Amino acid sequence: KKQSQLKEVAGIPLQSTTVDNWSQIQNFEAKPDDLLICTYPKAGTTWIQEIVDMIEQDADVEKCQRAIIQHRHPFIEWARPPQPSGVEKANAMPGPRILRTHLPTQLLPPSFWENNCKFLYVARNAKDCMVSYYHFQRMNQVLPDPGTWEEYFETFIDGKVGWGSWFDHVKGWWQKKDRHQVLFLFYEDIKKDPKHEIQKVAQFMGKNLDETVLDKIVQETSFEKMKENPMTNRSTVPKSILDQSISPFMRKGTVGDWKNHFTVAQNEKFDEIYREKMKGITINFCMQL
Ligand code: A3P
C-alpha cells in the first residue's frame, strides 16, 4: 500500500505539498489576459489542454510540441520542492498565459476573480469521473490507494478524494458562469461533436480557425492519436509516479464506462444521492453515447 496522504484546506483534501505551499498559491497574482483551464480531476484536463494548445499553435504539431516542452500550462496549485512550483512557473511565463487548475471555486486565488480572467471549465459526468479517478488512483503512486471499488464508491461520494467533492466542484463552477467569463463545456459534448466544441473554444480564445486547421485539430486530439503521442500519454513520467502497467494514463476515453463498474444497487444509490446533492441545479449530463 502507498503511503501518500492528502491534507485538508477548508475541508477540501489536497496534495500535502500543495497545502504546504498554500500561502504562495493564495497570493498568486493573476493577470487580466490569463486563461485558466479548470477541471475536476479526470474530467478531460489533458484533452482540453491539447485542444487549447493546438488552437494556439494553429494546428502546427511541431510548434505545439515545442511549446509544450517549454511550458506545459502550469497547474497553479502544483508544488513538489525542490522543483519550481506552479506559481513560480506561471510567474516566469510571458503573457497571455494559459494556466490550469483543479481547484474548486472557493479555493481559487482571489486575483483570478478580481482580474476578470477567462475560465474554461470542462465537466464530465460523475459516474465516468469516478471510474476514471479510481483507476488513476490505482496507478498514481503519489495519490492515496483507492482501496476496493466498493470502498472507493463511498470515498468519492463523500468527497474524500483529492480536490474534494465532484458535486461541489461542478456546482461551484456552474454558479460562477453567469457572473464571470466562464466557457462551460462537457466532456461528452466534445466526444460527440469535437468540431463544434473546438470551434467554441477557439472563439472564446478570440481565434478564427479555417476549416482545414479545425479538421486537423479534430484529428490530432482524438483519443487514438493522443494515446500514441508521447507528449500527451505521459509515457515520459517515471514509473515511480505513474505506473502505467497497472492502468494506462490514456485508459479508455469513452462515455459510459461506468456501466462496467457500477452494480445495479450502487447505481440506484448513486442516483438518489445525486438528486439530493444537485438539488436546485439543472445541468443535464449525458451518461452514454
Ligand atoms: P478514462 O480514464 O475514462 O479513459 P484528465 O486528463 O483530466 O486526467 O482526464 C483523463 C481522462 O480523459 C481519461 O479517461 C482519459 O482517457 C481521457 N482522455 C484523455 N484524452 C482524451 C481524448 N482525446 N478523448 C477522449 N478522452 C480522453
Automatic annotation (TrEMBL):
Gene3D superfamilies: P-loop containing nucleotide triphosphate hydrolases (3.40.50.300). GO terms for molecular function: sulfotransferase activity. It is found in: Cytoplasm. SUPFAM superfamilies: P-loop containing nucleoside triphosphate hydrolases. InterPro entries: P-loop_NTPase, Sulfotransferase_dom. GO terms for cellular component: cytoplasm. Keywords: Cytoplasm, Transferase. Its EC number is 2.8.2.-. It holds the Pfam family Sulfotransfer_1. Transmembrane segments: none annotated. Residues 32-281 form the Sulfotransferase domain. Its main location: cytoplasm. Belongs to the sulfotransferase 1 family. This is Sulfotransferase.
